[in-house]
């Protein structure tokens, strides 16, 4: 069953989600029984690769003494998770608890690279600088030098491990807390094996769901697709996201309008409980 929701006045997007924000002010739960995101997100046995650049995503570099502590007080997740992993999904909220920016934070030595919507990156930097006060932290827009891309399997069967008969009571079993954060690393390792000898390409798993593939951070003038023999067929990255119920960017998550749970964030490793 496909549900269509108007995210803003200029764009209509399709999501497969349990919860969604109604622009008219009514917040409703939607029970959708063609739902795959919260079932196993592992890819098909025969994995294919497709690379897409992400021109709507920008990168902000944070560096300096106490940068982890600085970010910790501004976002929904726990920055200390980066002690055990290299990427982290989080939200930056306003004082009323509504979403300002969805972000993925990447760790590189003592530097943090924060991915956000490039169309509002200057306001995001302004937001960070407002709370910097006297801290000796550098906040720089590096989107002119670095870019983000994604490598994913365009033909994966996202619903292959779903097994429920569509009754309301089954909804309680769709998102078991013990399995929602399990991550299939096989695709990530495959990409790393191919690009292991390539310089200036930083490979990070997508911290949200393994079905969303692998994030690449690299210089803007580097052509990645030939290195991976990227496929042109199959679903686009945006289609995969929509099928998984994962929103991204200010066109899909209007600034200051909604709470995290209205965009399935309570089912993603974005909020530290």
UniProtKB/TrEMBL annotation:
GO terms for biological process: iron-sulfur cluster assembly. InterPro entries: TrmE/GcvT-like, YgfZ/GcvT. GO terms for molecular function: transferase activity. One of its GO terms (cellular component) is mitochondrial matrix. It comes from Diaphorina citri. This is Transferase CAF17 homolog, mitochondrial. Keywords: Transferase.
């Amino acid at each position: 069953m496909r549900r269509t929701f108007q995210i803003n006045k200029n764009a209509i997007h399709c999501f497969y989600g349990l919860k969604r924000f109604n622009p008219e002010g009514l917040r409703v739960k939607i029970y959708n029984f063609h739902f795959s995101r919260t079932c196993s997100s592992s890819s098909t046995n025969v994995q294919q690769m497709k690379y897409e650049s992400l021109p709507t995503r920008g990168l902000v570099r944070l560096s300096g003494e106490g940068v982890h502590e600085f970010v910790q007080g501004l976002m929904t997740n726990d920055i200390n998770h980066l002690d055990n992993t290299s990427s982290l999904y989080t939200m930056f909220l306003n004082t009323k608890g509504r979403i300002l920016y969805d972000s993925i934070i990447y760790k590189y030595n003592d530097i943090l690279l924060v991915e956000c919507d490039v169309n509002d990156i200057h306001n995001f930097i302004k937001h960070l600088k407002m709370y910097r006060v006297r801290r000796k932290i550098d906040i720089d827009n590096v989107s002119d030098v670095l870019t983000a891309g994604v490598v994913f399997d365009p033909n994966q069967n996202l619903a292959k491990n779903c097994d429920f008969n569509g009754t309301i009571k089954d909804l309680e079993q769709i998102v078991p807390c013990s399995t929602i954060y399990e991550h299939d690393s096989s695709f990530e390792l495959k990409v790393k094996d191919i690009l292991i000898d390539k310089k200036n390409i930083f490979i990070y798993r997508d911290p949200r769901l393994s079905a969303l593939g692998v994030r690449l951070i690299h210089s803007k003038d580097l052509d990645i697709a030939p290195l991976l023999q990227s496929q042109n067929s199959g679903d686009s990255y945006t289609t995969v996201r929509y099928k998984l119920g994962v929103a991204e960017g200010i066109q899909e998550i209007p600034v200051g309008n909604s709470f995290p749970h209205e965009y399935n964030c309570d089912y993603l490793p974005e909020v530290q409980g």
